[in-house]
Design a protein that fits this description.
163 residues, mainly alpha, 7 helices, 67% helix, 0% strand, globular
Length: 163
């Protein structure tokens, strides 16, 4: 039996994909006004609030010793999420699964993030960020619940017990 090799993606396909991504990013930038400078301000301002927060601050403090690399990763993450740049290559779900967090933490994260978007961004950009942040929080909360052997129904929230 002879194996049939898959053809490697040829450079024109990669070039076309890169062009489509760049065009999509440009459309988002034009529509929202989001750029790397705005993402930088948003991430820096947001995580300053996170570090001072009584609920989620300790969760981060227990895991992030050097904030420089973490903030750099978060800027790449939000560039990918908000602008479709594809510059973030990490996997956020596995990092969140073992954390001692539940829906209360995600609610606080969203509240701080929304407060920060309103301070740092024009309304259309704030709405763009928040739409994505809500989806991210919901996905992570579902993943954390599942990792803790809790299957959430539609509209249910994950609450840790026994802590």
């Amino acid at each position: 039996m002879t194996a049939i090799p898959f053809p490697a993606a040829n450079p024109p396909d990669r070039e076309a994909a890169a062009l489509r991504r760049a065009e999509a990013t440009a459309r988002i930038r034009d529509h929202t006004g989001i750029d790397e400078a705005m993402i930088d301000r948003l991430v820096e301002t947001f995580y300053a609030k996170v570090r001072d927060d009584d609920l989620i601050g300790p969760v981060f403090a227990a895991r992030v010793q050097d904030w420089g690399p973490h903030l750099a990763q978060m800027k790449l993450f939000w560039s990918s999420v908000a602008l479709s740049t594809g510059v973030y290559q990490g996997r956020p779900m596995p990092k969140h699964l073992p954390l001692p967090i539940d829906g209360t933490h995600f609610d606080r994260w969203l509240a701080l993030f929304e407060e920060t978007t309103r301070e740092v961004c024009p309304p259309v950009a704030a709405a763009h960020f928040m739409e994505r942040a809500r989806r991210i929080a919901e996905s992570l909360e579902l993943g954390v619940a599942n990792a803790n052997n809790v299957m959430l129904g539609v509209g249910e929230r994950y609450r840790r017990t026994g802590d």
